[in-house]
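To: structure desk
From: M.T.
Subject: fold request, one chain
Message: Could you run this one when you get a chance? Sequence is below, nothing fancy, just the single chain.
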Amino acid sequence: MENLNKGKILIVEDEKSMREVLGILLEGEGYDVALAAGGIDGISLLNKDIFDMVITDLNMPKVNGFEILKKVRETSPDTLVIMITAFGTTESAIEAMQLGAYDYIHKPFKIDEIRLVVKKALEKRRLREEVSILREKIKTTYEFGNIFWKNPKMQELLNIIPRIAQSNSNVIITGESGTGKELVATAVHNLSTRKGKKFVDINCAAFPEGLLESELFGHMKGAFTGAAYNKQGLFEIADGGSVFLDEICEMSINLQAKLLRVLENSTFRRVGGTGDIKVDVRIISATNQDIKEEISAGRFREDLYYRLNVVPLHIPPLRERKEDIPMLVEHFLKKFSFAERTVSPRVMKLFMEYPWKGNVRELENVIERIALLTDKDEITIEDVPHEILMFSEGAEHASDLTKEGVDLDSIIEGMEKKYLLNALKSTDGNKTEAARLLNLSFRSLRHRLSKYGIK
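Reply: Done. Structure tokens follow.
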């Protein structure tokens, strides 16, 4: 089995004694070491596996260090390469660095020297990976833990998360799109003993089956069309940490079987690979679908569901926890640097009545849009997007429904005409600007004006 915890290193050296000394030294430091007795063996191993680092002699018969470096750049661009050179080949070593080598070491070298170079190089590589993952996590829309929820169901959820985070049990999060499932997953990881390790996430709906398997498990060069180099998958990258599989129900049945294998024995194979890779990851999954219906329809494996559903968490939609809306509005105004703005009581009433089908994400987008388009200290009814106003007026008419019924077409036409006139009035008759305010194309606006005889 492969162990990627501290680092996997390939040593390419045709001199047996040098090769064995380096192998013993680095294995003693806790690295997973593979040995190649020259360039040809090195190329063979690079075709079969992915390494964090390659240490190669520069001058070797048949296949030299430059060719090893070229192969690494082609198959695994993130792998570090350190050249071992004789004193007379310094210029060649510098050339190798210009071609992408990380560093070079002169023969004869001191044990402490190579130990330090390897340690610093791999630490730098890990730091680069962590920065990359952190940049992805910065995309998070709002800070789950910094908000005080008034809704009892949300308070209960906040109380549960710290307890379940301390275990290694798999977690499945359910809820509509936009409710904050990724934030809950991040909170579970950050409050767990794995918080110092990596948290990687992937939306299963964003990839076709073949590419999703490659993203999760990695692939070898040439495994499929477009596989130009060896690639580590998210499960390898997250070893010791957590993997968040969003929209898990979008995963194909075939790939579900491979995920089940990871859950059962913590091993998998890269696409096109032959060796088993062992990892230690916690799986947090999420879906906005009824997973039991998916099982009944034969689209989701029941055995996989029971493996994933050790700890179920459900996030209620925003329309079921409207007491949280004022707090969220205040939070988003602060987030977008408009903390000094206030919201009029009438606008807040509209927000409380609106169904928010897009949940918290939709509310955030509305607040951002309003805050950017108004310079006033107080957000008033004139600043509210027309779709919220339309819903409010439609709800008022619906409350007037009697046994005799109503003329729905007439009501809708009246509302539409009213908004067309208001948009033209607020833009001094500028049709292009009015179309923008109503989120219509210019052609659509012109058609509607003609329909109602508005000139």
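Reply (cont.): The longest helix spans residues 111-137. Let me know if you need anything else for the meeting.
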